[in-house]
Fold:
Amino acid sequence: MDAARRRSPDQDPGWASVERRRALLVTTVFVLVVDLVLWACASATFAALPGAYWLMAALAVVVDARPYVLADRRSSSVILPSICFTFAIALAWGFVPALAVQLVAVTVAGVRMRQPVRRSLHLGVQHAVAIGAAAIVAAAVSLRIGPQPGWDDALLTVAAAAAWILARYGLAALVARVGSHRRRGRARRPGVEVLATAALLLLGPVVLATAQVGLTFVPLVLLALHAVHRMVRSAGESERAARVDALTGLPNRRALQSTVGEGGRERALLLLDIDRFRAVNDALGHRVGDRLLVEVGRRLTDVVPAHDLVVRLGGDEFAVLANRVDGAPEARRIAQHLAEALNRPFALDGLPVDVTASIGIALQDEPDADCATLLREAEVAMYDAKQRGDQVAVYGPDAAHHSPDRLTLLADLRRALREDAPDDGIVLFYQPQIAIATGEVVGVEALLRWQHPERGMVGPEELIRVAEPTPVMRLLTGRVLHDVVAQLAEWRDAGTPLRAAVNVSARDLHAGGIADQVDELLHEYGVPADLLQLEITESALMADPHRVLNTITRLDHMGVAISLDDFGTGYSSLQHLRRLPLAEVKIDRSFVLGMATDRGDAAIVRSVIDLAEALGLRAVAEGVEDERTWRLLAAAGCHAAQGWFHARPMPPDELAGWLARYRPLRPGPTPLALPR
Structure:
């Protein structure tokens, strides 16, 4: 990334100072010229103006030295207290005298806010059009505010104020729409802005009536203006608090949604997840972890241009909304620049802390893309980067798991889990596990199924592929754990206690909260911990072994058995296998299915069984489909088996009937030999 990208002109103090002086000079000259033209064209009108006009004009200029600015600092979100006086001037003496004062007041406000010339002119045009609309209404109905106004005058004043508001904010909306060259689905809600504007405008005729009683009372209106200022300021602080992260001071998710909702092309959303952040919390404490998050936010802000937005989404997740991005290559360069900035150690209490981040990128190709879609796509890309061991990944719709079909399925699954309706179609089937030596049922494995209202039955493999890279996986795991523990309680109460195994993903183990979740469920339903077993895969183990070790050690101390699933298909180290508190290893079905005919598969199965025996672990074979395989496993000393030879996966009510009919089946005294 070049230097211009890293440091924008807005970040150069010298450049900004020159621009402010230039804006002041241009704006002042322009207003002087316009006011001179107005004076020349209506000199008789100005000469006949009373002292009340000049007093209100002076107050209008003075009060605009402190304009009311709302949270987003756009010109349409600036409230000028001078409108209280200029609206009264327009009602009493017409459009031209009011316009002359308003232009000077806008200039003072623009200089005070350090606005560029274009924004000051935009603000001046808005107020000029608004004053014109109010003056037209007042002239049309011959409105004149006297010392004792009547009810008709009050209603007509409200009509003139309404014309002022509609003209100003209507023009602002029109300019915003034309400038963006497209129609947005969501309009910005004026809210407090319009309410404060209406209060100032309706205060104008009160000032005018007071001036006719005595000019000495007019400055007292400054107290009322101060009250309006406090109201706007309080509303602005509340708005900022709702859009700012309390810990880091960065904009939050709501601010990101608002910014994306304003539209824009050539954008990229970069989602950053701090790697192994929990290890920092565990080793150094949450106070140091919070300081690290603050420092990460500061460093990102330092290297990101002013026209981009740095956001803390929550936890250890940050986001950067990069504008002016021309395609994926430039977005990757920005991500690499952010990654390099974070790779420099952070000094916390004199201790250098190294931090890395996985970054997912979503490009806003469509002008009407919403924030939720961008976040979902960036999150998918970020987990792709984690799974591949890369630091940066770009969301690509051509990948199978990014297809619209899968995204639709994911949205349906998320909706079903959050609604938690009794007929959502999410069910669990249970497949028995049989002790090979005795033929007894030693447990079951819970297998997820989803009866989709349109697609029909969706299997566990597809559900996991869709959900695992996203936060939906946590919702899904929570639902499965709840249903399994509740079912264990039913079986225990019926006098047939069974052990149930549940598969958990890498995302569940990395989150760390699964141990607390399991503990709460076991206590809620009064289920002994030894009736629940969690199955983890080798890929989950290798993604972050130290983080996984902390989680499964807690589960082991609780009494929950841990099984290593799909053993032999990954790349786990035997050292990790020795150190982990495992109860069993499950031999992958790809080896078991071929062991009766393939010498290589048979050798792998025999080696895994011997290794499990040496480490004091149970060996469970998956995919046992025929009697020959079952007898060969018995000859090799395998402890348990599951597969269609014994039983298919069944819903709980069918399993109860199957258990009542089942009679233990033993391999026999002369098992077949393994092929060599």
